[in-house]
Amino acid sequence: MSIKKLNIHDFFYFYFILIGARQTSKCVWGQQILNYPYVLYYTTIHLGSPPREFHVQIDTGSDVSWVNCVSCNGCPQTSNLLIKLNYFDPASSSTSSIIPCSHHKCAICSTNNRCSFNIQYEDDGRTSGYIISDLMHVSNISKGPLAPNFSVPLVFGCSNLQSGRLTSHVSALDGILGFGKYSTSLISQLYSQGKAPRVFSQCLKGDNSGGGIVIFGEVVEPNMSYTPLIPNQIHYKINLESISINEHILNIDPKVFTTSSSNGAIIDSGTTMAYFIEGVYNPIVEAITHTIPQSIVTTDSDGFHCYLITTSALSVMDIFPSISLNFANNASLVLRPQDYLILIPALEGEKWCLVIQKTQDITLLGDIVLKDKFFVYDLARQRIGWTNYNCSLPVNVSTPSSGKERNKKGGTSPCDKHEKLIMVLAFMTYMSLILI
């Protein structure tokens, strides 16, 4: 069904109201590194009949949604996020059904005629199980808090085997909610049912309280910059053309930015930091070093490039430059010092470390550099957009079906706005070095 044929009142508007919680822990990225405050974005969803609550990570880098199921081998039993972990039991849900191998989208078949899944993440986490369909429950608050719930079918994975990072209680959750590009993702499933447009918007708060919002629909704000998605790519990948430090373009070989299977920049809310290939990372670090006062000592600490500041005369915002990532269609993503630096406790003064890491074959932008901006993931028009934004403020939302703007301003919070069908979710921020 074409998005233009859908009635505007049939759309879901998902407001993910974010709650902040920060901790400091030893981070694992191939090895133990340093005491580093880390962040992870997740929300609660309700599945099955009767509905049960599950805490799931919001991940634009994943297409398959899944939750831990009963009799899971390797699933964590506790979480240091201070949440109660739950396990989905298809047998206890009256609306649950197992997807058979004969389903037209089934790629892996188990011996008991169950359509299966097997996911290997880049940080050594792995999960496998079988595919099921059940109801995800949504509250209609447009008619008041006592209005009945609505339900939508959702096909997702039932994980019964986990290994690697996923077995750890550190940042353990009940599963992942996949916001990727392809047909198995949440946005694609809702679109195919005529319940959501092929566009969603995300804003992550960067202050100590964390928080933010995710909306199914396009946020309409002034100064929004758009750049096209690179065609035929698995992830949300956009074409990085140049980088500027304090508005001066760095001398980087243009071939470094050539779009291929391993070039281009991935936008991924399932990742904390930013990763640049060596030909981009080195010029950035060199330019920052040449810009800051010579009195600032630079040091490498377990793979992190850090700066030791022993005077309080100037703030970090005054010392460090802005970094502009310049994408196709003249769309620039400007990073302030607080977007690419993080404070690490030091015996003398302050140690500010780059949240930018060097890689061999991938450029990836995670939550640290995406914060305090509204990002629009527009699959309908194959583009990504962004603008600086205070994530605590109400927003304007439009739908591509009618082209009419839905005014969501004038209230004290996004929860106060009314659409035909709104699901209000909450997810917390937690800081973690996880690459998914």
Automatic annotation (TrEMBL):
The keyword Protease applies. The active site is at 59, 268. GO terms for cellular component: membrane. It is found in: Membrane. Keywords: Aspartyl protease, Glycoprotein, Hydrolase, Membrane, Protease, Signal, Transmembrane, Transmembrane helix. Pfam families: TAXi_C, TAXi_N. InterPro entries: Aspartic_peptidase_A1 (IPR001461), Pepsin-like_plant (IPR034161), PEPTIDASE_A1 (IPR033121), Peptidase_aspartic_dom_sf (IPR021109), TAXi_C (IPR032799), TAXi_N (IPR032861). GO terms for biological process: proteolysis. It comes from the Eukaryota. One of its GO terms (molecular function) is aspartic-type endopeptidase activity. Belongs to the peptidase A1 family. This is Putative nepenthesin. It comes from Lupinus albus.
